[in-house]
Amino acid sequence: MPAPRHRRAGATSRERLFSAAAGEFAARGFAGASVDRIARAARVNKAMIYYHFASKAALYRDILRDMFEAVATRVGETARSGMDPADKIRAFVEAIAVEAEARPHFPPIWFREVAEGGRHLDARTTGHITSIIRALGTIIAEGVATKHFRPVNPLLVHGAIVGPLLLYFASGGVRNRLGHRGVTGAVRLDRPTVVAHVQRVALGALESSGHE
Amino acid sequence: MPAPRHRRAGATSRERLFSAAAGEFAARGFAGASVDRIARAARVNKAMIYYHFASKAALYRDILRDMFEAVATRVGETARSGMDPADKIRAFVEAIAVEAEARPHFPPIWFREVAEGGRHLDARTTGHITSIIRALGTIIAEGVATKHFRPVNPLLVHGAIVGPLLLYFASGGVRNRLGHRGVTGAVRLDRPTVVAHVQRVALGALESSGHE
DNA sequence: GTCTATAAATAGATAGAC
DNA sequence: GTCTATCTATTTATAGAC
Q1: Does A142 touch chain B (CB under 8 A)?
Q2: Any residues with CB less than 8 A from the CB of A161 and at least 6 apart, and which?
Q3: Which among B155, B152, B204 is positioned nearest to A167, based on CA atoms?
Q4: Contact (CB<8Å) A160/B117
Q5: B-contacting residues in A 34-53 (Cβ below 8 Å)
Q6: Alpha helix (H) ranges present in B33-84?
Q7: By the 8 A CB rule, do B139 and A195 touch?
Q8: What percent of chain B has pLDDT over 70?
Q9: Rounded CA Rg of chain B
């Protein structure tokens, strides 16, 4: 199940469908996505979807799995690297940001799947998600052992990192709509600012020299 | 446009439709929601939807507006209260949490609408959203003036608060699915822990005695 | 692997009686 | 305000030719 290469002319029909479907699911959600539109966007006959995939749901599940497999791989490498704990936290944040940028469909699809209660997550995908959280837990435990961090539930830290990052990457459309009305002065956010802020916030939550 | 009372037997057909639709949109998204199912859940004839609302889209827009109106009102009161800036930030976090709990459909619907690029937000609703962010900006400016906070883009702080909170309230289903597989030790998170963590994180981002 | 044609179900919306 | 009946379009999916 390799990640689909970008929409090159030479991409296989399966790759073209995969990539077109990711865009369609991101923009319209699982129920809102139409296999007709996916096929049209991929410039492939609709029947080919059912040649390559068992169903619309199976195609969607494959896209979910591909997303989390990529993140789990990258995050696992970070956790096993030689950096000190604080840099590993920074790298974890950066890894999510890199993956969200490389696959623009990732943040909206994940938000939508959360809203669906994770109905479409198969066993392999929940395994990837678990391994992402476990990697973060390992980094935190390491920092606690070296007295750099205080012990914090990894899910809390995960939420404080992934929540704001996904919100930023998925909310371009909404921020545009707010900006159009000229109401908020500072609707401009850029990626480095957001990533730096999330890194700061995550480390702030973990610092053993905490207040409170 | 009053908030729908809970599904009492005596509720008007409009209120019943409103409340049933909120649940349906939260669970299935705008495209996935079916007016037939909404009518059935509300125990009301389908034609009544078109008697009370211009269309499925208009009904959905009303639900969005109702959500953000409630949050904007509560947050505005917080900003105008007599608390000191740090307590106002804590109250802001609490306000989002209270509203998310009072309307369980709010977090999933908001995630989905973000993914849709805010297509269904009308002018009044974007106005409410803007006023929420402006209220937060006012609180921050106040803290900066009294030397308690450093200046931070309100949108960054907003993301660091709303992202994790919505993720927590919307992700019960996903967390259950991870927990079922027994993989993550500590999938248990409770509301007070999450709210306290988000409050701590938000204040950490604003503290003028910052590192870095 | 790729296509056409089509089945079968469901969608949003409305007309019109009461 | 509430109902039945219905129109029209679109949906996922498949059968079968090439």
Answers
A1: no
A2: A92, A93, A96, A136, A198, A202
A3: B155
A4: no
A5: none
A6: 35-42, 47-52, 56-80
A7: no
A8: 90
A9: 19
Q: A129-140: string of b/e by CB count within 10 Å (b at 16+)?
A: bbbbbbbbbbbb
- Please state the pTM of the whole predicted model: 0.95
For residues A100-112, average pLDDT = 98
Residue with the two structure tokens 């129920």: A31
Task: Show which of residues 1-20 on chain A sit within 8 Å of chain B, judged by CB atoms.
Answer: none
**pLDDT digit string, tens, across residues B107-141:** 999 999 999 999 999 999 999 999 999 999 999 99
Minimal Cβ distance to A204: which of B133, B194, B204? B204
Q: Is the Cβ of B109 closer than 8 Å to some Cβ of chain A?
A: yes
Residue A180 main-chain phi, psi, to 5 deg: -55, -35
**Per-residue confidence band for B8, with pLDDT thresholds at 50, 70 and 90:** low
Q: Which residues touch B179 (CB under 8 Å, ≥6 apart)?
A: B187, B188
Give the 3-state secondary structure of residue A92: helix
Q: Is B122 on the interface with A (CB under 8 A)?
A: no
Give the integer Cα–Cα distance in Å for B128 and A28.
25
Distance B8 CA to C15 C1' (A): 32
Q: What is the pLDDT of residues B178-205, one digit of tens each?
A: 986 655 555 689 999 999 999 999 999 9
**CA A90, A95, A99: angle at the middle one, nearest 5?**
155
Helices (H) and strands (E) in chain B, counts: 10, 0
